[in-house]
């Protein structure tokens, strides 16, 4: 997909260009999605008592919340190729707000399970976030842009753990009981999701030069016909073994993050006998590392690419994922609260850097089937979360044992990163594109230019 005038720098405090509006609204939308997707997680101790849920049933709801996202992420990537990220995001946010508010109607395990299953579709927002930032930024900064938009979005996993108990407490001050309180609390993220969807439609566009419909009308993009359609794009991506290697890699980083988002609060609540607010605050620290950690993963990916091209990006991905697995194994052994928190932060750092490193590689796998590649790899994160969920639904397996097993799996999965390779021609082409974008950026600096636009990339 030939998109021209991509930005070759990130002007963090700018909202005047389509590139930076997409940057800021995409991370904010993904951030808000976490309030709908995992808003119930820090309140699960209350929900457990209200609905009489067992550990196995809680585990099943955790699996449900991420399972449906696998399918929706595959579809949403193809939808982005067809209608563009602007419409795809707006519709996902507005429709996704409905089950978030409707979860308060659940009165049994079965209805609660169905609600969490429906809400899980919101998790497909990640694919659109990565797709949209890839449309807007040139090779010299695309790793940083992708990592930052995703990381600040993932930050929602941390702020949700902290803010939702506060919303719940605020609702309780109205004089309602806990059974009503958690239901009313979930209305708040639903309303915000809907409003964010409207804002996304109003203030963004698909690409630097306009929306996909406009680009196709001008002949700058191929038409969305069967010849260039979603099925062909998906099959092209699905036949590439590198895509499936990254599927496993992302399962071992983002899948782990989703799992921790689901179990962290109740883990600290039960293991260290903490109150709900304190457990939520500590669990939130894991997600708050996204403020900078995932961005670091993308920054290092771009830096490794400057010195070693696409091979450098892959090497960095392996290092980050391997260190994540080692840190997770260490976290699983902790019995003292303070030490457990410290190791959790180190573990969180590498989890999110590995995520940023993954999507520092994704844009270069197949640029003509970008949506399909991003969708498949993104779905891997949820597949990993589903697989990990089975470790934490068993009554006979402790949380510590489950975490240790998960750490071993991550170390093994890191080897898949080394299976991602590129042809010498691809390496040379991307070195040239990187140098061209970086050179134009330096030229703009030396002449004091303020233009946001960069080189065209394929």
UniProtKB/TrEMBL annotation:
It is a multi-pass membrane protein. Residues 433-458 are annotated as: Disordered. It comes from the Bacteria. The chain crosses the membrane at residues 21-46, 58-76, 88-106, 112-131, 152-174, 180-201, 243-268, 274-293, 314-332, 338-362, 369-391, 403-422. Residues 433-450 have a biased composition (Basic and acidic residues). It is found in: Membrane. Keywords: Membrane, Nitrate assimilation, Transmembrane, Transmembrane helix. Belongs to the major facilitator superfamily. Nitrate/nitrite porter (TC 2.A.1.8) family. This is MFS transporter. It comes from Salinicola rhizosphaerae. The gene is crnA.
């Amino acid at each position: 997909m030939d998109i021209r005038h991509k930005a070759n720098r990130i002007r963090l405090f700018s909202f005047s260009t389509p590139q930076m509006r997409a940057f800021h609204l995409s991370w904010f939308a993904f951030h808000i999605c976490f309030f709908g997707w995992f808003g119930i997680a820090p309140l699960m101790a209350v929900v457990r008592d209200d609905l009489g849920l067992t550990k196995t049933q809680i585990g099943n709801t955790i699996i449900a919340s991420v399972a449906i996202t696998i399918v929706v992420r595959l579809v949403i990537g193809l939808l982005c190729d067809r209608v563009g990220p602007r419409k795809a995001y707006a519709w996902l946010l507005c429709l996704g707000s409905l089950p978030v508010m409707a979860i308060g109607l659940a009165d049994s395990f079965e209805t609660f399970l169905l609600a969490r299953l429906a809400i899980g579709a919101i998790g497909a927002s990640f694919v659109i976030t990565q797709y949209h930032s890839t449309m807007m930024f040139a090779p010299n900064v695309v790793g940083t842009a992708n990592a930052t938009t995703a990381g600040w979005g993932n930050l929602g996993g941390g702020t949700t753990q902290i803010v939702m108990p506060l919303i719940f407490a605020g609702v309780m001050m109205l004089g309602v009981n806990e059974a009503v309180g958690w239901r009313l609390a979930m209305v708040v993220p639903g309303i915000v999701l809907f409003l964010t969807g409207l804002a996304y439609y109003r203030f963004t566009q698909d690409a630097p030069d306009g929306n996909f419909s406009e680009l196709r009308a001008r002949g700058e993009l191929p038409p969305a016909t069967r010849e260039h359609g979603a099925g062909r794009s998906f099959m092209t991506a699905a036949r590439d073994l590198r895509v499936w290697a990254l599927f496993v890699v992302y399962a071992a980083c983002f899948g782990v993050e989703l799992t921790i988002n689901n179990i962290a609060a109740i883990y600290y609540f039960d293991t260290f006998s903490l109150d709900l607010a304190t457990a939520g605050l500590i669990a939130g620290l894991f997600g708050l590392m996204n403020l900078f950690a995932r961005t670091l993963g993308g920054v290092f990916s771009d830096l490794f690419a400057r010195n070693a091209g696409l091979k450098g990006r892959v090497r960095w991905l392996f290092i980050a994922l391997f260190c994540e697995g080692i840190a997770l194994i260490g976290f699983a052994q902790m019995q003292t609260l303070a030490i457990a928190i410290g190791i959790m932060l180190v573990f969180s750092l590498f989890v999110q850097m590995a995520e940023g490193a993954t999507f520092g590689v994704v844009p270069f796998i197949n640029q003509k089937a970008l949506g399909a590649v991003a969708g498949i790899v993104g779905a891997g994160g949820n597949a990993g979360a589903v697989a990990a969920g089975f470790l934490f639904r068993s009554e006979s397996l402790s949380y510590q044992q489950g975490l240790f097993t998960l750490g071993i799996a991550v170390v093994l999965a890191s080897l898949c990163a080394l299976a991602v390779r590129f042809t010498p021609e691809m390496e040379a082409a991307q070195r040239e594109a990187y140098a061209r974008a970086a050179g134009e950026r330096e030229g703009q600096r030396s002449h004091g230019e303020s233009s946001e636009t960069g080189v065209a990339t394929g």
